[in-house]
Structure formats: structure tokens, C-alpha cells
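Q: Given only this backbone (193 positions), what sequence would you predict?
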């Protein structure tokens, strides 16, 4: 089907160009599937997949883990007060304020519209309140045109047990319940069990 003989060099260059283009497109698509576009944090699907893998290691090694949820109580008000781009920037600053407070072995991602989840591996219970306090302090300076974020924290701590895929579920439920208690009581800023 080729009219004339083609130099092997030209075929190699064309093949390499095509492979580089496909590889770049694949990386962009993978990033779109795993990252929240507004913050650059892992999205819920990717976060839970990574946490599932980490929880298997924690169970094998007998370590206790913690899930800390950090929720923005007035996020709806934030998005109605400002345009989408400005509100996204505030939420991204919120995420960037939390991120330095976690270790390399920990994971943070956007759990849902109003909250972020931090998975802490190999952690001791006595340090959880200090960690949660650090998260709360790091976000207190984030405000925009007089609008201040209202943040609540909930967390669950313990050893990992159970079937693959079911290990982390009870901790997520407990962390979510602990996050809701301060929101409902209006007196506490955080609850960790």
C-alpha cells in the first residue's frame, strides 16, 4: 500500500510522536478522573480507592488509623455571595491551608461539596485533637471581603478490621456522624471518637 520505500527513521519519529501524544492525552484524562477540578485535591472516588489500599496495609501491620472530616458549614452561602470562580478560589485556599498540616503518609481529598477527608495512617489517639486544632487554625485566616468560613471537624479513630472494601466504611460513617454533631449543636467546633 505504500508507493515507495520509507526510511525507518521517519517511521520511528512518526511512531514516537504518536505515542507521546497518546500518552499525554491519557495522563490528562486520568487526572480529570481522579482530581477535583476546583481544588486540585483527590476527588471522592480516587480518595476512597487510595484509602482502601492504605487500610489494607494498616490492617496487615496492626496500626490504628483516623479519618478526619473537615467541613465548611457555610459553603452554600459562600457560593451565593460570590461568583463561582471567586468561591472556588476561597475553597482552594481552604484546601491549601489544610494540606501542609498532613504528613507524606497521609491522604487528603474532597469528600463532597462541603467537606474534605483526611486519612491519617499510623496515628496515636492523643495527637488527633492537636492535629484537628492545627487544621482549624490554618483555615481561620481564610476570608474574602468580610466573609469568614465556618469550619467544623469530625473524626473517627481505631484499628482496621473486616473484609476488603468494607474496612474503611464504618470509620467514614463515624467521622461523618462526628462532623454533623458540631453542626447541629452549634456549641462544639469538633468531635473525634
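A: Predicted residues:
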Amino acid at each position: 500500500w505504500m508507493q515507495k520505500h520509507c526510511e525507518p527513521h521517519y517511521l520511528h519519529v512518526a511512531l514516537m510522536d504518536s505515542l507521546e501524544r497518546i500518552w499525554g492525552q491519557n495522563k490528562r484524562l486520568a487526572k480529570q478522573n481522579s482530581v477535583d477540578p476546583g481544588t486540585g485535591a483527590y476527588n471522592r472516588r480516587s480518595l476512597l480507592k487510595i484509602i482502601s489500599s492504605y487500610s489494607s496495609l494498616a490492617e496487615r501491620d496492626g496500626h490504628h488509623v483516623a479519618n478526619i472530616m473537615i467541613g465548611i458549614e457555610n459553603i452554600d452561602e459562600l457560593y451565593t455571595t460570590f461568583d463561582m470562580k471567586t468561591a472556588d478560589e476561597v475553597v482552594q485556599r481552604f484546601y491549601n491551608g489544610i494540606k501542609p498540616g498532613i504528613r507524606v503518609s497521609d491522604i487528603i481529598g474532597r469528600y463532597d461539596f462541603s467537606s474534605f477527608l483526611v486519612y491519617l495512617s499510623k496515628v496515636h489517639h492523643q495527637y488527633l485533637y492537636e492535629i484537628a486544632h492545627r487544621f482549624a487554625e490554618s483555615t481561620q485566616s481564610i476570608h474574602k471581603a468580610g466573609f469568614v468560613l465556618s469550619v467544623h471537624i469530625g473524626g473517627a479513630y481505631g484499628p482496621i478490621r473486616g473484609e476488603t472494601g468494607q474496612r474503611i466504611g464504618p470509620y467514614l460513617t463515624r467521622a461523618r456522624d462526628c462532623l454533623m454533631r458540631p453542626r447541629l449543636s452549634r456549641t462544639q467546633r469538633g468531635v473525634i471518637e
